[in-house]
Here is the input.
Amino acid sequence: MDEVYTSGDYIEAQILLGLLRSRGIDAILHSAALQGGLGELPALGILRLTVAAADGNLARQLLVDYFAGALQLDSSDMQDFK
Here is the structure.
C-alpha cells in the first residue's frame, strides 16, 4: 500500500476518500475509528489515506488537482443527483 495523504481532519479525509473512489481508485482510510479518542492521541496526522502502489501516482495527482481547484465535474459525477 502507498500512503498518499495524512490528515487530522476527519471530514477532509472522508471527502478525499470519496474523490479517489469516485475516480476508480480503491482507497482506504486508516485510523478513522480513533477519532473518539482525540483527547489522548495526537491531534494531527492520525488519519492516513492509502492506495495500491500502482495507483499512487494517479492518486497523488488527483489530490494535487483537487487542492489547486483544477478538478471539474463531468456527467458521471452527477449521476447520483438525477
Summary: The mean pLDDT is 82.
